[in-house]
């Protein structure tokens, strides 16, 4: 018997809060029984989604007891991993079998299932989001039944379910296509934004990974590249000031005295020293992200990305928004997952962040129409205001997904108010 009582819950940034009945089933049988006997259920990963995907005052399930590698296939370089495994643990667990994820983002706090459900990604023109490397998954349906989905079994559920934000069922095991372990050389430097605009088309093909962070009041950006190497491990160069500490201090100063923001942003290029580091992929991808924020992210067609970024920066600068955080710019390769933001579209990903102690709504209201003007699709785990009316026009397989969802969950067991808006609501 699982004790049922309401607990306070919030996501990492604090923007989503609720009092759910938080349950942590310790076996597959108990988990199935909970699903069979409760009419409304959501699942919590690590709470790193900024949107209301997990918000509920009904049952909120945690997969804390579902961690680790279940099996591995040396010949095909694949592993079956339990859905509650955190990304920060996964690298070491896969290393035992000489395997590594194809790609990662710079935050590794998420659970595997949560990252996959929302289309979490890194950067690289030849690299897809994490969900595209899922070869199959075990799913508990709304009836509590257990099914395996891959290209041969329950193919439609497999095609739709790799990015479904927990609306088709609950993933318990996930088969990943990995690759042998590899090292990456990370290079970070400050450079003029004009130089990036001039050379980015060339640079994006020269590097396995490339991204940059642009400040609305600074002529310089922070450019980061990662490339495979066989060189020995080389620790990161110590900066003048810890990046996370500097970010928090400047955000607090901008909050207290917005007029300081332009000067603070221009100071960044003076403090960022060129640095080089080499390490195994799972260790070099993640960055320290302790300063909390709220985030909006849209995926744009590649040909629209730079124009969108320039208009966005012009707009935010014109309105003198008190936002110290830079704008992040990345590349992601297309995939075939029905509701992936990268469905049949090589994309540029643009993210804006606002310090968690500052108002983000007014800034995101300025940015979102610009993202939409250039045909952007929102990241499912980030903040946006689109409802089903607008989203259905952005996804060619939307109606197919909705039909499948209705078949699997006619009683809307997996639907909370946020998903109600995503699927059937009108855009704000």
Automatic annotation (TrEMBL):
Keywords attached to this entry: FAD, Flavoprotein, Oxidoreductase
Keyword Membrane included in the entry's annotation: no
Coiled-coil intervals: none
The keyword Oxidoreductase is assigned to this record: yes
Matches recorded under SUPFAM superfamilies: FAD-binding/transporter-associated domain-like
Pfam family, one: FAD_binding_4
Domain (FAD-binding PCMH-type) ranges: 15-181
PANTHER family tied to this protein: D-ARABINONO-1,4-LACTONE OXIDASE, L-GULONOLACTONE OXIDASE
Protein name: FAD-binding protein
């Amino acid at each position: 018997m699982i004790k049922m009582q309401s607990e306070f819950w919030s996501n990492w940034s604090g923007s989503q809060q609720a009092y759910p009945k938080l349950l942590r089933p310790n076996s597959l049988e108990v988990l199935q029984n909970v699903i069979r006997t409760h009419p409304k259920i959501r699942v919590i990963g690590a709470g790193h989604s900024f949107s209301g995907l997990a918000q509920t005052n009904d049952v909120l399930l945690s997969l804390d007891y579902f961690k680790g590698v279940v099996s591995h296939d040396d010949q095909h370089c694949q592993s079956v991993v339990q859905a509650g495994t955190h990304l920060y643990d996964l690298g070491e667990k896969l290393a035992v079998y000489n395997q590594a994820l194809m790609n990662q983002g710079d935050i590794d706090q998420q659970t595997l299932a949560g990252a996959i459900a929302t289309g979490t990604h890194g950067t690289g023109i030849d690299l897809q989001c994490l969900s595209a490397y899922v070869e199959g998954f075990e799913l508990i349906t709304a009836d509590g039944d257990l099914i395996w989905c891959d290209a041969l079994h329950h193919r439609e559920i497999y095609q739709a379910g790799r990015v479904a934000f927990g609306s088709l069922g609950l993933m318990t095991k996930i088969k990943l296509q990995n690759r042998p372990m590899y090292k990456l050389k990370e290079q970070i430097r400050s450079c003029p934004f004009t130089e990036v605009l001039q050379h980015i088309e060339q640079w994006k093909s020269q590097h396995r990974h490339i991204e940059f962070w642009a400040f609305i009041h600074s002529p310089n950006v922070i450019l980061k590249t990662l490339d495979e190497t066989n060189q020995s491990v080389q620790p990161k160069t110590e900066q003048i000031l810890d990046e996370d500490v500097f970010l928090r201090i400047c955000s607090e100063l901008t909050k207290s005295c917005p007029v300081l923001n332009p000067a603070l942003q221009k100071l960044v290029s003076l403090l960022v020293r060129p640095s080089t580091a080499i390490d195994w992929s799972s260790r070099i991808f993640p960055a320290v992200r302790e300063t909390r924020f709220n985030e909006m992210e849209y995926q744009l067609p590649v040909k629209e990305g730079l124009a969108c970024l320039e208009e966005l920066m012009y707009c935010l600068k014109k309105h003198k928004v008190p936002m110290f955080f830079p704008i992040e710019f990345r590349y992601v390769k297309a995939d075939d997952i029905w509701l992936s933001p990268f469905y049949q579209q090589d994309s540029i990903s643009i993210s804006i962040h606002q310090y968690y102690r500052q108002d983000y709504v007014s800034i995101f209201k300025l940015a979102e129409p610009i993202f939409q003007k250039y045909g952007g699709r929102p990241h499912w785990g980030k903040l946006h205001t689109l409802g089903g009316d607008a989203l259905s026009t952005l996804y060619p397989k939307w109606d197919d997904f909705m039909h499948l969802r209705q078949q699997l969950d006619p009683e809307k067991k997996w639907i909370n108010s946020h998903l109600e808006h995503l699927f059937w609501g009108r855009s704000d």
